[in-house]
Design the sequence.
């Protein structure tokens, strides 16, 4: 179960999308999501899908990988779909079952809302799959740097993100190991009612917390031993630089946004 | 009850960009009462192999039979398998979680659904086997103990399941020489007194040489050698070729041979080589 998590996973490669500046990727991802939220009809979603597909092809990612990333969201998707379906006030009934009336507007709203969520997840997946966590946090830090003037802790936030991302695979591995060790002692994590399952987590969570705290402590010591004292005056090994590739990508995304906008204005 | 591994292959993260095959067509049989040393460098597939022995991992292809039962079969009761085959992981002290030593050791037997008297008997027995005093430690918190004691409590936690086969993954990793000696002697006693079948994964050739009756060498997910320590350790060149060491006694014998001494083949224990050297010295005295 643990190995199915693709969230935040990096898919190594050397495509133009991989080589782009992480800052540009972050900005363009946000732009793409804004574009998706401007869409208000099926043709628009088709365009959004086409653009996403193009990017995925250029990045050399298997499209199935992106779809798999949506899988953990299926409950939220179904939930929001049903919620919109039942509670969105509409005026054009198409089906009537006792006290419940299905309206055209509600159906449309439900479908579009679910689609938006799917595009949101897939769009950000492209970002995380093509950008290594280090690059991503580097990009974030640089983008947030202007905010430091207002005492916004940009560096600290980026460092916390780097560490958290670094620790996710470690903790997953640790969880897997402890889980197996307890299973070897006859522990059962898979059957029983909710209360029994919650109780069964204790032998897993206690050692996990113990080791997480120990790791955090060790890391803090190791960082201090290397004179870490925040981001002041720190120079970088790899300076981020915008290239022609980034300009090209920005132009492509701008075109996409224009098309979406025009489509919504004149055809929608 | 032998453990039969038939044509076992295992692939991690299958289908993704990080797909790796950890085991390639491994076949072997572990007989009752054997003491098997499993050696190989990091990433050779040792740990993956031992996790198949009690059904924690299911083969990608091939079969693992314990007592004739297929461990991957859905109809097989995995808990029954885990009761027969105990597995002590690397750094087992990381799995301790209970408030007291007694409760932690009792975790396994309690999962087996045994009576309170039986659990109590097993806890006392398991602590005795790892040479810890029940009276002194049973009410202490596991987190107050020393590293060596924590490890022994963790091993006791597996012993309390009273498995007939005990698999230990690097039981001495990270211990000081004294802690190491203590763990090794308790493993030796388990094998000698209780007749428990032992599979010990180790990096240390000397530990394996001093304890095992059979040595299996893994390399790149395959069984590279399988035989008595005498057979395996006499192939020093082959072992070095796959990045492993030989026991110090074998190293010494090889060096003496390079100097032109007629050291007999197949000596791998410190006592044996010591006896040979003593013999030489005796002869030297007689000549003089």
Sequence:
């Amino acid at each position: 179960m643990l190995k199915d998590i693709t969230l935040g996973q990096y898919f190594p490669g050397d495509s133009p999308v991989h080589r782009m500046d992480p800052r540009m990727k972050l900005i363009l991802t946000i732009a793409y999501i804004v574009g998706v939220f401007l869409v208000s009809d099926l043709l628009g979603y088709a365009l959004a899908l086409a653009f996403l597909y193009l990017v995925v092809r250029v990045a050399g990612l298997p499209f199935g990988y992106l779809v798999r990333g949506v899988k953990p969201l299926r409950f939220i998707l179904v939930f929001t779909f049903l919620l919109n379906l039942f509670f969105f006030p509409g005026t054009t009934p198409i089906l009537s079952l006792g006290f419940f009336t299905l309206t055209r507007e509600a159906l449309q709203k439900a479908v579009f809302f679910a689609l938006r969520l799917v595009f949101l997840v897939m769009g950000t997946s492209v970002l995380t799959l093509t950008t290594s966590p280090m690059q991503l946090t580097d990009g974030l830090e640089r983008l947030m740097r202007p905010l430091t003037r207002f005492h916004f802790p940009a560096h600290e936030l980026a460092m916390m993100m780097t560490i958290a991302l670094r620790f996710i695979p470690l903790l997953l591995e640790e969880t897997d190991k402890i889980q197996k060790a307890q299973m070897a002692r006859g522990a059962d994590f898979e059957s029983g009612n909710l209360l029994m399952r919650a109780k069964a987590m204790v032998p897993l969570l206690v050692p996990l917390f113990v080791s997480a705290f120990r790791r955090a402590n060790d890391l803090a010591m190791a960082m201090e031993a290397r004179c870490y004292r925040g981001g002041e005056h720190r120079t970088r090994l790899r300076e981020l630089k915008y290239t022609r590739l980034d300009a090209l990508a920005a132009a492509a995304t701008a075109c996409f946004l224009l098309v979406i906008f025009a489509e919504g204005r004149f055809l929608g | 009850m032998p453990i039969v591994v038939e044509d076992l292959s295992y692939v991690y993260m299958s289908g993704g960009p990080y797909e790796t095959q950890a085991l390639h067509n491994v076949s072997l049989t572990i007989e009752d009462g054997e003491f098997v040393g499993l050696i190989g460098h990091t990433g050779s597939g040792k740990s993956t192999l031992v996790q198949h022995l009690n059904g924690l991992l299911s083969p990608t292809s091939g079969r693992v039979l314990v007592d004739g039962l297929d461990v991957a079969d859905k109809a097989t009761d995995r808990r029954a398998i885990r009761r027969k085959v105990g597995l002590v992981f690397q750094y087992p002290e990381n799995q301790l979680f209970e408030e007291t030593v007694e409760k932690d050791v009792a975790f396994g037997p309690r999962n087996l659904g045994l009576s309170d008297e039986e659990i109590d008997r097993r806890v006392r027995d398991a602590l005795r086997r790892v040479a810890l005093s029940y009276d002194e430690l049973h009410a202490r918190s596991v987190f107050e103990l020393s590293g060596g004691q924590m490890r022994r409590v963790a091993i006791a936690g597996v012993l309390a399941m009273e498995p007939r086969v005990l698999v230990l993954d690097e039981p001495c990793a990270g211990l000081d020489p004294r802690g190491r000696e203590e763990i090794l002697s308790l493993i030796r006693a388990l094998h000698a007194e209780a007749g428990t079948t032992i599979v010990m994964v180790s990096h240390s050739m000397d530990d394996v040489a001093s304890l095992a009756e059979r040595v299996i060498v893994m390399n790149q997910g395959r069984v590279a050698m399988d035989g008595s320590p005498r057979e395996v350790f006499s192939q020093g060149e082959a072992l070095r070729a796959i990045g492993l060491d030989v026991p110090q006694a074998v190293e010494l014998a090889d060096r003496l041979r390079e100097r032109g001494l007629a050291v007999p083949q197949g000596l791998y224990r410190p006592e044996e080589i010591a006896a040979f050297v003593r013999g030489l010295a005796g002869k030297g005295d007689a000549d003089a």
